[in-house]
Amino acid sequence: MILVLALSLGLFWGQGVEWTEMLVIPALAFVMVLSTIGVEGSLFRTPSRWLKPAGVGIFMNYVVLGGLIIVLSMFLPLKDSFRTGYIILAAVPPAVGVIPFTSILDGDVEYSLIGCIVCYFAAFLLIPLMFSTFLGLSLDVQSSLFTTLTQVVLIPLILSRVLRYINVAKRIEPVRGLLTNWSFFLIIYTVIAVNREAVTSDPLSLLPAAALTITTSYLLGYIIERIGQMYEIDRKRIISLVLLGTSKNAGFGAGLALSLFGKQTAIPITVQTVIMLSYIIFLNLRKNTEPSQ
Fold it and tell me: What is the model's pTM?
């Protein structure tokens, strides 16, 4: 409900967004801390548990989803700024919401967690590489990108370990979900509100972007499910594969777009936020109507 409220306020109100823009990167970092603070230290001490989910996470999120986003963005009739936005989206790692959403949908939480964490570490290499290949970024922009990655990925991971070590994690746990939701509220509200005028004034121009995002969420998710069922993969594992293979960190992408390229490039990321939110709601409603497994 909080995410729907953020979406509604961003579209129909959209006031005071100037100061919320400054809070997007800190909010992303805070969500990263909250999402990883529950990770047991033993998980980091057993590399054998990481190998398969790490490889699958990178394959699903960067090769399958990222590759499909780039291919579709090249062939659909998109504005150059929109195409840049989709390159940004293809380059960013999975949404940190994949971890709590996996839990909500009764998926394999450890599998999603490892896949996400490894994708975030891989992002230090893959984002600059993809930006350089497809966007030809200059060195000063690459430097800003590395700074943003450090703020959103590396520092939060280290901070989450410190908080666990000093036993603060247990005190945060009762309110972790609430804090995560309101952080997402700030991020989603800002992404929507910044591009409110573009979204509401000429919605027909967004149809190609909507078609791309529906393809990479609803359609791709269905294909992943069917392939998983064909190969008799465990249901919980399929849920993790679907989320890793259809979700990108739109908040992170929007933060990069706003700080490095301008708000026009964040418009397709806004579309992705809206449609992915509807897809997560769809998955949750479907789970609640399915017979018990």
Answer: 0.84
